[in-house]
């Protein structure tokens, strides 16, 4: 299970909100005492239900199941820490006004668990730069022997997926590209294809791996690049998705290259 440092606090906050007693507790309630029971709100009948759901032929059942799904999604990152039977019991007991722990115990358990998550996140964050660097080097060492993969002097690796016949861009050109960027595990962190819109940028204003790689491409080409961390975002990474020392993978189509604006006079 992977945690980024800010995630522990996020998860702890999510747990607080999932707990109905914590989110609806009156500020004046004393320790060991239940908060004032909220007014039960009923919704007028007549809302449409989704047809054909086995065992869920009423709005009440469908809404209840939907809320259960939302709770499960909010706990996805810590599912290994959750006893589903006790989660259901806690929900049912609290809604029935028969919780087995008082407010002080609730707070104690929540704070201890949040501290555990935070400690785990800090440990993972401290280890992540070295882990990513080692994984990237191991991957690139193996990948350089793959058919069609070329490794440049800088360590950039690329493969020609389609060779165009246009000119290669100069270092100061503005290029128009379509691209998809992924991590080594296949996670997509950026894609102009998903936005259905190519992007224009000065070739000398991007990460070194892009400047070098796109500079190798004749217009009309499509290349795949494997960019080591030192030619990408380095130890700083690109939060929240790109971790420190992450090796990146890009598929790039070079659509156009044109001369950039001249540098302003000094």
Automatic annotation (TrEMBL):
Gene3D superfamilies: 3.10.50.40, Peptidyl-prolyl cis-trans isomerase, FKBP-type, N-terminal domain (1.10.287.460). It catalyses: [protein]-peptidylproline (omega=180) = [protein]-peptidylproline (omega=0). Keywords: Isomerase, Rotamase, Signal. It holds the Pfam family FKBP_C. InterPro entries: PPIase_dom_sf, PPIase_FKBP_dom, PPIase_FKBP_N, PPIase_FKBP_N_sf. GO terms for biological process: protein folding. It comes from the Bacteria. Its EC number is 5.2.1.8. Coiled coil: none annotated. GO terms for molecular function: peptidyl-prolyl cis-trans isomerase activity. Residues 1-24 form the signal peptide. Residues 172-258 form the PPIase FKBP-type domain. Belongs to the FKBP-type PPIase family. This is Peptidyl-prolyl cis-trans isomerase. It comes from Arenimonas maotaiensis. The lineage of its organism: Bacteria, Pseudomonadati, Pseudomonadota, Gammaproteobacteria, Lysobacterales.
């Amino acid at each position: 299970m992977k945690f980024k440092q800010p995630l522990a606090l996020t998860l702890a906050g999510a747990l607080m909100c999932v707990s109905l007693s914590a989110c609806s507790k009156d500020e004046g309630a004393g320790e060991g005492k239940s908060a004032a029971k909220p007014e039960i709100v009923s919704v007028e009948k007549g809302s449409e239900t989704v047809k054909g759901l086995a065992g869920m032929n009423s709005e009440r059942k469908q809404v209840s199941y939907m809320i259960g799904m939302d709770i499960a999604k909010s706990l996805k990152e810590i599912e290994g820490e959750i006893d589903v039977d006790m989660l259901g019991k806690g929900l049912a007991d609290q809604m029935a006004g028969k919780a087995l722990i008082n407010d002080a115990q609730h707070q104690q358990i929540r704070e201890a668990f949040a501290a555990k998550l935070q400690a785990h996140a800090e440990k993972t964050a401290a280890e992540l730069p070295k882990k990513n660097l080692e994984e990237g080097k191991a991957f690139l060492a193996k990948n350089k022997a793959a058919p069609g993969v070329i490794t440049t002097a800088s360590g950039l690796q690329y493969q020609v997926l389609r060779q165009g016949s246009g000119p290669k861009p100069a270092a100061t050109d503005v290029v128009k590209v379509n691209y998809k960027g992924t991590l080594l595990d296949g996670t997509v962190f950026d894609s102009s294809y998903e936005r259905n819109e190519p992007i224009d940028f000065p070739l000398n204003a991007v990460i070194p791996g892009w400047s070098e790689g796109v500079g190798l491409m004749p217009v009309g080409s499509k290349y795949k690049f494997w960019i080591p961390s030192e030619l990408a975002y380095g130890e700083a990474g690109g939060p929240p998705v790109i971790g420190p020392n992450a090796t990146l993978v890009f598929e790039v189509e070079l659509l156009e290259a044109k001369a950039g604006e001249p540098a302003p006079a000094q």
